[in-house]
Amino acid sequence: MLKRIIFTLLLLLRLINPAFAEVNIVATLPWIGSIVREIGGDKVNITVLVKPNQDPHYIEAKPSMILEASKADMLIYNGLDLEVGYLPLIINSSRNYRIQAGRKENLDCSQYIDAIERPQRDVDRSMGDIHPFGNPHYHLSPENIRKVADGIADTLSELDSAHAEFYRKNLISFYERLDDKQKQWGSKSLKDKKFIAYHKYFEYLASEFGFQIIGYIEQKPGIPPSAGHIERLIETIKNSRPDALITTGYYGKRGVEFLSQKTGIRGVVIPHDVGADDIKDWFTLMDRVLESLE
Ligand SMILES: [Zn+2]
């Protein structure tokens, strides 16, 4: 009985005074973990669910993920349906009221950005398009990350108000670093380059850095190419001589190798998330992606 009273009192105290020792955060993707680390510093404890070598479109919910989610004070994810295959199941099975949809602790980062390639009409999911709400790969974009970092800082400040000033200071340092980096990145000569890509992964980057993606090896996002599509693509490559055929570390390598052999155009594997090839944070990821493209 006494135990129960103490427990209830502790719970009440926590509800009245939401000051955390450390905010327990579950992030789906490595790049999200990296941005949260920049803003949250040592006031947050971060668990990332997806490994950097995994294809982020096809992740399976595991009991260990559900366990992490059950203990989370906050859940932060990419959105635009990128996690639809596993996250709803994890949220539901966690029985953690804090991270349910509609609550502040359930943070969809895509709310802060303007998604490109939003479908004009309803996409029929049976057609297999894995980008039903527009292109979800907005993390390779300094402009988007600027807004996402602001959204994360805002939400953390609200949920853990005792450390609001700390989060805001970290956001300002993050912006200073980003401003410096953007000056460096702006000097990259990518403007006249054109590429063929395996998947629609680099579109935000292309529009910010002024290069072109003139074709895709996948027929639609998530749909492998048919023989006819490959034939047409070989024609396109021969006629327009792109600078490279690009893909990410987790898939598309064989398609790129095949086309590279057929056409003599170089294939390049671009790191797609933090943690791949020892990439320690989002800034290094952008450095490596831009170096590879250059
Ligand atoms: Zn995708």
Rg over C-alpha atoms, rounded to the nearest angstrom: 21 Å
Reported by name, the CATH topology of the largest domain is Rossmann fold
Bound molecules: zinc ion
- Low-confidence residue ranges: none
Query: With helices defined by DSSP (H or I, 4 residues minimum), what is the helix count?
Result: 10
Any idea what the shape is? globular
Task: Provide key terms for this protein.
Rossmann fold, 294 residues, 8 strands, binds zinc ion, 2 domains, four-stranded parallel beta sheet, 12% strand, alpha/beta
Please explain how this structure is put together.
This protein is 43% helix and 12% strand. With 294 residues, it is of the alpha/beta class. It has two domains: 20-183, Nitrogenase molybdenum iron protein domain (Rossmann fold), CATH 3.40.50; 189-293, 3-Layer(aba) Sandwich (Rossmann fold). The strands form two sheets. The chain has a four-stranded parallel beta sheet with strand order 2-1-3-4, with helices on one face. It has a four-stranded parallel beta sheet with strand order 6-5-7-8, sandwiched between helices. Helix 2 links the parallel strand 1 (23-27) and strand 2 (44-48). The longest helix has 23 residues, at 164-186. Bound molecules: zinc ion.
